[in-house]
Amino acid sequence: MFDFKSAAQREKRRFLLRAWVAGCLVLAAFALIGMRLWVLQVQEHEGLSQRADRNRTAIVPIAPRRGEILSRNGDVLARNYLSYTLDVVPAEVGNMDEMLENLSKVISLSPQTIRRFKRRVLDAGRYSEVMLRNDLTDIEGAYFAAQAFRFPGVKLKARWVRQYPQGVSAAHVVGYVGRISEADLAALDASGQIGNYRGTDIIGKLGVERSWEQTLHGTTGIESVEVTARGEPMRILHRVDPEPGKDLILSIDMRLQRVAEQAFEGRRGALVAIDPQNGQILAYVSHPAFDPNLFVGGIDHESWKELNESQDVPMLNRPLSGTYPIGSTYKPFVALAALELGKRDAKTKFYDPGYFELANQRFRNAGSVAYGHVDMHRSLVVSSDTYYYSLAPEIGIDALHDFMKPFGFGQLTGIDLVGERTGVLPSTEWKKKTFRKPEQQRWFGGETVSAIIGQGYNAFTIMQLAQATSVLANGGKYFRPHLVMATRDRHGNVETVTSSEPMHVIDIKPQHLKTVHQALADVTKVGTARKAFAGIPYTAAGKTGTAQLFNLKGGKYRRDEIDERLRDHSLFMGFAPVENPTIALAVLVENGGWGGEAAAPIARKVMDAWLLQNDQGAVSSGATP
Amino acid sequence: MISIFNALMRFIRSIDWPLMLLLLVLSSMGLLVLHSAVGGTDWRYADQSRYFVYALIIMWVVAMVPLEWIRKLSWLIYVVGLVLLIGVELFGDTSKGATRWLDLGFVRIQPSELMKIALPMTVAWYFYRREGKTAWYDYFVVLGFILVPFILIVRQPDLGTALLVAFSGFFVMYFAGLSFKLLIPAAVIGTIALSSIIIYQEELCQPDVDWVVMHDYQKGRVCTLLDPTRDPLGKGFHTIQSTIAVGSGGMYGRGYMNGTQAQLDFIPERTTDFIFAVFAEEFGLFGGLSLLLLFSLLIARGLYIASQANDTYGRLLGGSLAMMVFIYVFVNIGMVIGILPVVGVPLPLFSYGGTALLTLSVAFGLMMSISSSHPVPKQGKSHPG
Fold it and tell me: Does A16 touch chain B if contact means CB atoms closer than 8 Å?
């Protein structure tokens, strides 16, 4: 009992000692503050006080004008226009509520506008100009101007507002700007950019507007303004001009873009067309899309609800964030793998009875057709699944993975947009990492069989397929795909921002490449895409594909019996002209069914537009530096 | 009748009146200064008055809870806090920069704020459990308690709050008897490092010098502290204007609502983090020193309550909470007068904002719970002091 008590006593005494030490620390720290206060308020008082009196200079930030966004042919995709706004300096308004009530009799002010305004006043402070309403019509502006004397502290101003003249077209490329949010502020703070955003109230939220924010924004200027004792500006003492943001020139060809978008009318899907010689993206479709103009002044509740709840998900950036098993469009790459890895000779004939058996499991051709004797050329032209099934045990999943990786399958392509998804390029290692239970971690031979025809675990973006097609078209050069090809400053100096050097080059034997190219050329002549490409005056190479949504397990696929939204996705990859490709593309039509039917005709229209009715030569020599 | 009387007595007994008096004086001053900072009456003033009423109620409620219950709940609150922090990590939208809030569907909460209270509670609870058999490795266990939330909050990223949370745990370790042999060398090294940075700032702040341990933006903040003119649109602007405001206050101040710096909008964030600049400009050196005196009394009362607690848990928790008040005051005022970097730490009871006040009201409620727990004798055992 006594021991316990003394231990407790000791404990208590130790705490007391430590509390005293802590108290001394507090006193020392406060003494330091006191000393500093003494220095500032007594020793330097005179100087600082004079500075405060003279410090009627306010540092006013001057927001730079945001850069425009143009297509390669000069169409304006994003620009700024002057709009009338009403700005309020709260300190100069007598009774805020009274003023708002009187003003609403002159100019329409919704309760929401007033609520938002009050919130902004809270953030900005009483002496700064806070926007009350934007986009006043000329008539409203005139009404207010006539009565302005009744509203001290309320000013009619003109300010730059972002506008997207092309509307829905290329919306997923351009993106949109919106009001700077708390989260944006925190991010700007973390990157040390916040000073440069004083005086700016919008920031890129999506698309190129977001990924090229720094270039578009420019540098904020400073104006030192002398103010009177009541805070009114008197004269400008010193000024550093803002540096306007640079314009962006996209590699997108708006004519091609529109052709592609029209081709998708009434359907959902994605298309990416790339110039295989340099990685420039010529068309980038995610259909349906949204109107970016809705977002500029803050989107209203109804439109937001409509966009978000639509079954067609117009806000989804399909080429970047949709991942699919790409079906037979994978076969050209697998054929090349078989040749390069020395697993199969192009001339070797293989007998296709319509199915392939592995470990008592039977894998069938689509539609259970038997193609008979098939060599590599014919396997691509008729799209024999069995030919590729038979390659599965010979190549093996890991060798397949290693061959496909440099083409960009299951990798980030590095395109200059935010939100790209990686997808999955399966391998034994991937499966080990992804699954928890040991029995799920094992790789089965049958899984290689599905993977090798582009089904199974494969999940690639259309961006990746387009990029791989471009690499296949140009013979192995991997260029980083990009949307912005140049910037232009206010003096009109154009500066190329992308490298003309490939990031890496895949070593492919010319004769192997030729085998695959020739087979793909025959696909559009006599193969699965012959209908769509009938009568083209140029040469085109391509491959159709179908991404399965339903596992049919050998049963018959009866399209008319399946709900439209559960039908397979239709795919096409291709490039043209075959000898010297200037366009490579990948197309996905959601629930479009068979590849030759929905996706290939769209590819045909885009290739026609690029190669035929084309002032392309003139344009690219004009815009490409 | 008697039961009502008893309830009233319990209610009165649950309040520590000296602490209450100090809080009332400081809050009244806070409201007064806020009134000037917003330039008269507006909704922020009304908001803050309402927040103070809520805070008072919350404080009383916490004060009425027996300390024993609080002690037993400590680890549970800590675990909940950790789960919420992990929730922020997983479900917070980190792509847009810092994410501190977690939306639970019906309410948005800031788990790092909860941790400021939950961590010292848990560490105090741990030492209470190990009382009498504390060994060296206990300090490592506690270090783990501190590091987990610290790392989670740093990743948000919010280094300022993470450091405050770490401090709250560290103070418990200190009061629990962390050896001075460790503390003194750490303090000496820290002082030497700081002074060498100040002496060699010119060379260190060259743009091509890589600081290895810090991000570029963090380096920027430290360099801005050393020479505010290098970033006149950003954080440096705050420091320049706030020191001018404080200095122009002089001995007696410019008078209530007469500070030109404050009234003409030169002091940024003058209702929140920089409210001390408004106060110092209008009330001068005397005002500033009086405020320091009041805060010293508040901290002293906190330490006294802790020293009178009837168990280790109350002592450690009370001591840590008192020192947290000190850290807030010191870091905030230090930042305003330009001796510490600009970090987002509010001045307790002065800065506008409900979240910080909520945390404070819980902290002071806990102190009162500690203070009302000590006069109850534990089965007739006598208590010294």
Answer: yes
